[in-house]
Amino acid sequence: MAATTGAVLNGLNSAAFLCGGKRSQALLSAATVGSRVGGPAPKRFIAVAAAAKKSWLPGVKAGGNFINPEWLDGSLPGDYGFDPLGLGKDPAFLKWYREAELIHGRWAMTAVVGILVGQAWSGVPWFEAGADPSAIAPFSFGSLLGTQLLLMGWVESKRWVDFYNPESQSVEWATPWSKTAENFANATGEQGYPGGKFFDPLGLAGSIKDGVYVPDSEKLERLKLAEIKHARIAMLAMLIFYFEAGQGKTPLGALGL
Asked: I need a surface site. Which of 57, 75, 83, 244 has the fewest CB within 10 A?
């Protein structure tokens, strides 16, 4: 005679949608198995527990949705339940906000490195670099602005379309500069993490086997968490850089360098 019991974590149904449909869903189950062979046999208990949901204020247990919002189930990388304004109540908005956080974080990380290295190399404050007489400017400001708006607009429009219609941009007509459209396909199946030979040339989250990119889910999960943490720090750093620039200061100058 056997009896089994199971409980599904809150928010399980939305986990697949929020994670692009490729991540495994968390399941909490407990089972007891007993058998009778010539008499009663002792019961064995088998339990499989999911990882505890993390909190941005682990020392506070109360606070309701302000501290532990029910719409954040911990399935997203770097999810510590921080959503005091309730922006992610709608799963569709939550998915878009994560996409926006990733893109802004990646630009912020690039900008922080560029600002620090640029000033250390030239000695020119980052907010004055464009107006410096020694700056190399083969284009006028109008030409540069127009070119950037055109190119960035085109790239961002493709990303927007791909967000709402995944894999729609990995076709020949969408990549006119390349005859190998699969280079721009999503090799991991996760929104915002395309991987592949073009986006992961060093094979940090996968490997090339027989000319085909094979993602490594364990490495990918670890790198996703590391990336979002560094991205958030970089966005905070950029906010500080802006405040310093308003006072005529630079990051290196504030450090006395």
From this structure: 57
Tokens for 64, please give them: 């309701």
Share of the chain above pLDDT 70, in %: 70
**Which pair of tokens denotes residue 121?**
């190399």
Question: How many Cα atoms sit within 13 Å of 215 on the Cβ side?
Answer: 21
Cα angle value 121/126/127 (rounded, 5°): 160
Quickly list DSSP for 32-89: EE--BSSSB---EEEEE-PPPPP-SSTT----GGGTS-TT--S-STT-----TT-TTS
For residue 168, the 8-state DSSP code is T
Nearest to 103 by CA among 205, 239, 16, 227: 227
The residues near 195 (Cβ < 8 Å, ≥ 6 apart) are: 186, 187, 188, 205, 206, 213, 215, 220
Q: What distance in Å separates the CA atoms of residue 54 and residue 50, rounded to the nearest whole number?
A: 12
Count of beta carbons in the 10 Å neighbourhood of residue 158: 15
Residue closest to 117 by CA, chosen among 254, 252, 253: 252
Closest to 37 in 3D by CA, of 66, 5, 1: 1
CB atoms within 10 A of CB 116: 18
Q: Between the CA of residue 92 and those of 99, 157, 203, what are the distances in Å?
A: 11, 19, 31
Alpha helices in the chain (DSSP H): 12-18, 91-122, 141-164, 196-199, 217-246, 251-254
- pLDDT by residue (tens digit) across 25-77? 333 333 333 434 444 444 333 333 445 677 878 777 767 888 888 888 888 99
